[in-house]
Write a structure and sequence with these properties.
Elements: H1 3-14, H2 20-27, H3 31-43, E1 62-70, H4 75-83, E2 88-93, E3 100-106, H5 109-118, E4 126-133, H6 144-151
Helix pairs in contact: 2-3
């Protein structure tokens, strides 16, 4: 990946709906080069295009992060169980005091309560959960965890 790829990714991150013509003008290369580079980045899994819904506008009034402590031998089975749940939007294994973090959306606090009591409590290997209800989001850069390595200009 070279500087043009990084600049292209940066521009697409600002507005992925920019045309190849707009991008070519901003980056000083031909439209064909832009189209070829975007295709190459997609083919290699460096970028992907997706729709990012706004949970509040879809009626999900409760968003939360839930930190889990788990039996380490059960991490794969637990993360698989969590990944298939439609209210779970994010699952990550991590280090520190918690073993798994999940991001969840619910229509109401009652739904969140039922999820904790009737879903999480029944997954074998989860020892403890700690729920953080999100009050307000001040910055939400889509894909921020994945993009760190891809856009880091200190790497060649």
């Amino acid at each position: 990946m070279d500087e043009l790829d990084r600049s292209l990714i940066s521009e697409l991150a600002k507005d992925a709906r920019q045309s190849s013509l707009e991008l070519s003008g901003k980056l000083g290369v031909s439209e064909t080069t832009i189209r070829r580079r975007i295709q190459h980045l997609q083919d290699n899994g460096v970028i992907t295009f997706t729709v990012v819904p706004d949970p509040v506008k879809l009626g999900y009034n409760i968003t939360a992060i839930i930190a889990l402590e788990a039996d380490l031998a059960m991490l794969d089975k637990i993360s698989e169980s969590l990944s298939i749940c439609p209210n779970v939007r994010y699952v990550s294994l991590c280090t520190g005091n918690h073993d798994i973090f999940i991001g969840v959306w619910f229509h109401s606090s009652g739904e969140l309560t039922q999820f904790v009591k009737n879903y999480l409590a029944k997954i074998p290997g989860i020892r403890k959960s700690e729920t953080f209800v999100i009050l307000d989001v001040r910055k939400d850069e889509v894909g921020w965890l994945r993009s760190l390595e891809q856009i880091d200009t200190t790497k060649g």
